[in-house]
Amino acid sequence: MKKLLLLLIILTPILSFSQKNTTPTYTITGKIIDAASKKPMEDATIIFKSRDSNLIKFGGITNQKGNFSIDVEKETYNVSVEFISYETKILNVSAITRDLNLGVIEMELDLEMLNEIEITGEKKTLELKPNKIVFNVGKDISTAGSTATDILNNIPSVSVDPDGKITLRGQGNVTVMINGKISSMTKSEALKSIPAGSIAKIEVIANPGAKYKASALGIINIILKKGKDEGLNASVTATGGYKDYYGGLLTVNYKSKKVNFYTNTSYFQRNPIKIANYENEYFSNNITTSFLEEKSENNSKDDVFYNTFGADFYITDKTTLSASVNYSNINNNSHTLTTSDFFNAAKTKTSDNTRNYFRKLNDEIIEYIIDFEHNFNKEGQTLSSSFTYTTDLENYVNNSTNTNSAFTNDDFIEKNNLKNKIFDISFANPINKTATITLGYHYENGELPFTYKGTTNNIINYTDKVHAAFIDFENQSEKLYYGIGLRGEYEENTVDYQTLDTKQNKKYNDIFPSAAISYDFDDAHNTTLSYSRGIQRPGYYELQPFEQKFSETSSYIGNPDLNPMYTDALTLTFRYYGSKFTFSPSLIFNRYNDYTELVTFETGQQINGVNKIITTLENVGKFDLYGIDVTSTYKPTKILNFTGNINLLNYDQTGIFETVNSANETIIRDYNHASLNGSFSLLTQLKIPKAFDLQVNAKHYLISKGAYSTRKAYTYASAAINKDLFDKDASISLTVDDLFKSSKTDRDRFNTTYFSKSIIENKYRTILLSFTYRFNQSKKDRKIDFGKKDVKPKY
């Protein structure tokens, strides 16, 4: 760790070096808005061309509030503002001899630009901002035929494992949002239903503040597409692939000065196949007693329909009302075939079993969302509110049979019926030219009745209520930004175990502070220090006390006595923005108190001479995570771009778990352990004009050692190639996931009574061929890159 700090200290002054310029410079500021809606326009381009040579000398883009601030040398210029599908605005500015505020600039839609030729330009695939990373999905050529889960794997610092678990900077407990809102669409099954082609961009916030739920330890915000071009426009994508994959996506948008209608509709079918091999050896007093070898193959056929439909109504120049409906229907038919061979200590086979496990899932999700936003006459003063109502009905039909008569056959049905209501309101009020105070309130009420019908019947009613309020103060001067926030949350959840005739009620009442300070040394150098406190409260799955069987010898059970886990997160980030190179290292320290650990131990029961094990959750001591995360981009030429990430973290855990099993044996697990973990990733994009685009994403994961398990290192790669057709009205793309078929989980688990080796991998790599045709969509693509960061991007 000391060596990493020393390296950062050495690099910082080197990167800070810049050549002095004796020509006087002046700061030009202003704000750009849509003439019809009066809303600020983010990423509008301001261009300063020399009158003598007509060459672009200076420029920049607006931030989220539509503001810009550009340092310009003393000279005479032609100044213009450009934005996709808007008329170019020529400004009445010529000689720059002093600092100048251009005021509010209104942009008019260009109704005839759809047939114009392409102009220079390019929004970057990855945008580094002091408070977040923005990944522009449209610049990722692997989107055709892919899902949200696939695209997340292309974002630096973000990883998705084969089971759909998402980590951010090596940490779990990530909150995924849709358009800034908590959504049932973000659970792992539903994320795989959202087509990547319906996503505009993805925001990654590693250290959220008081405006977000305290349980949001890290945030991934998926922003869905809304059409920007006026009139009617659409696109259609058809995809087919290996193995057993086909589907399509339709996007339609109609926009006028008073209303914007949009819809994204997709359907796909797929059948990924996973294979797994397990080799287990069991001990007693360090002497081998038995062996178990298992092989399994899982076929999981999905039929998925997804639709989002919405409208933005521009009631006045300052008031917008939005309504949308998200719908997802997932039908999954899964079959797992497992063969088990049991051996004695001499490795002589004693028995075997073949288990067929069939599962049918139907999951229907419907979300109704209403958003309201009003901008007052006072600049920056806004009132916004939203209401979301969600129903999520899951039906599982499970059946398992065994050839060994000593094993139990199962037939059972599970039903979950979530109904959830969320209300948010916030008011932002600038108190002077540099400072803003924001107040907000959050209410959430969820009900989740659960029914299990099999050899035994279990009925659980789970309810959860949250009341939260926050206050957030931000001050942005020329170079210095600071913000402090405070959030109070009251949560009450009730678990009614009707079968057991018991009811459990838990209440949490906590305060969560946050703070951030950021300083701009100049246009190219910035540093940010941020802190936040959070909580991870146990939910229904963690609390329910009924056994769920993985196999005859392995099960899971929740812990109704589980306590919440509190977190403290501190991050120091430095950013350098060059014309071709950006560099952003972050020093990270996170502490988890009452750490929630998955604990596995022997129940005391034996099956065919093999100890049955059970996994549950326990609060075990504390967990410290600290290290460095580096994200960098490099564009050596106009056609080649690299995005890289290095994540090196030390996991330091303390704590001991102790229990007595059904055989009256004392079980002790010592979790005092430290290890280095990490990953490296490189996204390479090559664009050959008038030929094709090529993209390769490679990731390497270091070995991960825990107190009772070791996951081996592995390397993973995917590739995509894209070709534009018919004057860019169409495109064809080929995507290959797991290029070298090297994505596998090779893990060892061990303690004094057993050693288990497992390998889990996909049986086939995925190959997709997609064709997209665009109707009446804008072909303009901004490619101006001034080599400077976005101006004042703290919001």
List keywords for this structure.
6-stranded mixed beta sheet, 795 residues, 4 helices, mainly beta, 65% strand, single chain, globular, 22-stranded antiparallel β-barrel, disordered N terminus, disordered C terminus
Report on the architecture of this protein.
- This protein is mainly beta.
- It has a 22-stranded antiparallel beta barrel. The protein has a six-stranded mixed β-sheet with strand order 9-10-15-16-13-14, with no helix packed on it.
- Strand 28 and strand 29 form a beta hairpin.
- Mean pLDDT is 86; it is low at 1-20, 113-121 and 779-795.
**Strand residue percentage:** over 45%
Radius of gyration: 28 Å
Low-pLDDT sequence parts: 1-20, 113-121, 779-795
Helix content: under 10%
How many strand units?
Answer: 49
- Summing up helix and strand content along with how strands pair, one would put the structural category as mainly beta
The dominant shape is globular
Number of helices: 4
Largest sheet: 22 strands, antiparallel, barrel
Whole-number average pLDDT? 86
- First CA to last CA: what distance? 33 Å
Outline:
This protein has 795 residues and is mainly β.
Question: Helices and strands in order, then pairings?
Answer:
Elements: H1 2-16, E1 25-34, E2 45-50, E3 56-61, E4 67-73, E5 75-82, E6 89-90, E7 95-96, E8 100-107, E9 126-129, E10 132-136, H2 148-152, E11 158-160, E12 166-168, E13 174-178, E14 181-182, H3 188-191, E15 199-205, E16 218-224, E17 231-242, E18 245-255, E19 259-270, E20 273-284, E21 287-314, E22 319-344, E23 349-375, E24 382-402, E25 410-430, E26 435-453, E27 457-476, E28 480-497, E29 502-522, E30 525-536, H4 540-543, E31 548-551, E32 554-556, E33 565-577, E34 581-593, E35 596-607, E36 610-619, E37 622-637, E38 640-654, E39 656-660, E40 666-670, E41 673-688, E42 692-701, E43 704-705, E44 709-711, E45 714-725, E46 730-737, E47 744-750, E48 754-762, E49 766-775
Parallel strand pairs: 1-8, 13-16, 32-36
Antiparallel strand pairs: 1-4, 2-3, 2-5, 5-6, 5-7, 9-10, 10-15, 11-12, 13-14, 15-16, 17-18, 17-49, 18-19, 19-21, 20-21, 20-48, 21-22, 22-23, 23-24, 24-25, 25-26, 26-27, 27-28, 28-29, 29-30, 30-33, 31-32, 33-34, 34-37, 35-36, 37-38, 38-41, 39-40, 41-42, 42-45, 43-44, 44-47, 45-46, 46-49, 47-48
